[in-house]
Specification:
The chain is mainly alpha-helical. The protein has 4 helices and 2 strands; from the N terminus they run αααββα. The protein is elongated.
Length: 125
Amino acid sequence: MAIRSKENLLGAWAFLVGVILALGVGLLSFGVLSPVISGILVVLGLIVGFVNVSSKDVNTFLFAAVSLVIVSFAGLEGLQGLKDAEIIGLDVGDLVSSTLGALLVLLVPATIVVAIKSLFSISQS
């Protein structure tokens, strides 16, 4: 029987729910994110940043999160020319841009919190 660590359970669930919510809302919103959903994603991102990342995983989390933020932002900027692209009546540009935007709304607060926590731990040592 495997032993599980419960120290990051809340943060892990917040991250999982946040990613599923960001992907689902991004795909179903057709280009317009609700302010309520955006607020929920920001709160989940803050929970992930404060609770989920242990001190040994900071570098890995920051590397992955910053990579996702940069790629999502670059994808948003690159999709400006695809705003009118349609496949089977669906606006592909709007679907992808709203999904990337929702991921940004989740990941940016988490990344900022973890980076600030990392800077404080470096300054204390």
